[in-house]
Amino acid sequence: MRIGRVYSPMTVALHGVLYFGLDENVGPVDLSISPLQRPTWEEVVAMANWLVNNEERGAACSTWSFNFPWPTYRLVPPWKSAMAELLGGLFLLEMFRATGETRYQRSAWSHLHSLLTPVADGGLAIADRQTGGLWFPEYYSPQRPVPYVLNGMMYVLLGLKHASFVLRDDRYFRAFQLGLLDLRKKILGFDGGFFTYYDSVGNPADEKYHTFHVRLLDLLVAATDDDFLSKIQVRWKHMLKGYPLKEPLIFLTCLLRSGKVPFAS
Hints:
Blueprint: H1 9-19, H2 23-26, H3 41-53, E1 56-57, E2 62-63, H4 82-99, H5 102-112, E3 126-128, E4 133-135, H6 150-167, H7 170-186, H8 207-224, H9 227-239, H10 243-258
Antiparallel strand pairs: 1-2, 3-4
């Protein structure tokens, strides 16, 4: 399916993150998101205004909707993303600090609060009774089963820790701790033996996303001194050797294990 040219809250948020250098706190930014890599101040202002003007305000928090289909997970619009809420919220918070305009502050707080709000109440926090933790979905629609996407979850965790420091709000640190608890319980499910999975559906990570997994884990370990995650990071870093050469075998392994073509809609 060809989606065509659309506005994506995630892409707009990523450009804001890149402009303000927030990638040092929340992880590496994928520079292939668009031909526009380092936006000008005028472009950043336009992007921030677009986010504020296109938010959806709820009783508990604000969110952004993706108004186009996403065939990989058979999502139909509107669907939402915890990663977009986190990155967009941090971007708007920086806009407030740079301009003093309170509408950016209000919007930033409301979107970041979506990560403290359960999905049943319009937020993007999924409680897991088995682990006792929280998962923050990169792709969420109440009409579809939730795909657990590893890199998106780790971006949100790093962003929550940064938000707790910037806002001096313990609620975000508590959300970070609960998310870390859930990640520790689920992360071995993303280990394919000689590669990593991109998601819980059975799609593999290519070299770029496996590298993201390693780098994001490295940042999480530095932030937590977690010995369990440190051992996984070392193991996954070793997997990087010759990763592109392994990709045909990775594809066939995923096909045999799941019975479906990886990343087919």
